[in-house]
Design a protein that fits this description.
The chain is of the alpha+beta class. Helix content is 20%, strand content 31%. The two termini are 20 Å apart. The structure holds zinc ion (ZN) (2 copies).
Amino acid sequence: MLNPDIIPSVEPIIRVGVVLPEDNFKILSLTVPEKPDYFLMNASDEKFSLHAGDQIEVSYHNKVCALSINGKLTGIDNRWKVIPDDDIQMENKAGLKIQEVVSGRGFHWQKNIAVYVSGIVEISPLEDSLILVNELPIEEYLMCVATSEMGRECPRELIESQTITARSWMLANVEQKHVHQGFDVCNDDCCQRYQGTTHLSNQSIEGAMNTRGQVLMYKGDICDARYSKSCGGVMETFENIWEETPLDYMRPLPDAPQDFENPNLPLDSESKVRQWISSVPNTFCSPHAISEKELKKYLGSVDEEGSYFRWEFYFTQEKITRLMNKKLKLDADNILDIIPVKRGYSGRLTEIKILYLQKGNKKEFILKDQYFIRQAFHESFLYSSAFVIDKDDRKIPEYFELRGAGWGHGAGYCQIGAVGMALKGYATDEILYHYFPGSELKQIYK
Ligand SMILES: [Zn+2]
Ligand SMILES: [Zn+2]
């Protein structure tokens, strides 16, 4: 496991949660590949040999796991490891095949997929189901993250800058969301999307090799380099998304060349936000830099197609009332108004007020945090909280329309903007210094 207090001087081994307690899996199936050789180890470090094509099945029984190979019970124990006996040649679909893994956990694109992983696989019981942890060198992990996060046709500068951002975030290791569960990160958007070697491409292998050990540093610390799909034209700041303490290298800059000018910036009034969202300014993440059609080949394989820079959602009175009652437990008869209270620099709402009728009485509900706002205004998750609200002027409006900008929290590295920059010919370090101004690229291990 990573130690957050140490800047590593050799390549660290990390632990990635691939099947989590909330997936509630009682059975897991693995297939042993042709190469290299693998062996099995129980909790008492006893070894069992495995052969190419072996089917391993682990099932949960009352806090322990029963493991069988090709249908024959091998043993019952509280931890099993499947370990390669030699180095794994990193290539597409290298390593063990895990039959079913949840991808897009909790989002509207959630689905189960088969995943191939290099490194060690460890299966154990946790909270009444099975968890699967993949233990591997961080550089192998990063090769896989680059292709899981983005499509395979991305320009080299995009893959390299994405890899350095992911490595920095990982090694800064500030969030520690899963340490109590015994791993460093999970395999999904909660941390970083990781689908093992399933979609591994030569470009992402090279992307990691060309940037091996390189991280962004700021005043002696590794940058807590965050990223999201699209900022919508202006980068959001750390303090408006996560914590009150600002990070100097995440600033509210336009995602555009330094000479970019726009009459609506800074977005410090509702009318400026409205005009900004109603227009399509020429930023790196806008369709001026990459058409939405072209964008599809640069995005990762599980993302839905659609419009991300500017988008809209339409709600009838009935639909919005049903949604608010479901998500916020309002018990409302009708929604009367949705009023912006606070916004970040990118126009992302961080606080809204909802006026509604409950058994004929007027009530209000305050909702804070861009994450909870996005969760409330969509059956699963709204693209971003940078939106303006339109309604008709009846006492009880018949409709509400949300028009918005961007996809994700918008702070730090903008993945679509980085595609735009790479296509315009910017170098890897130029892209990184644009999204993390004041930071410095440094190789911390060879
Ligand atoms: Zn996570
Ligand atoms: Zn952007």
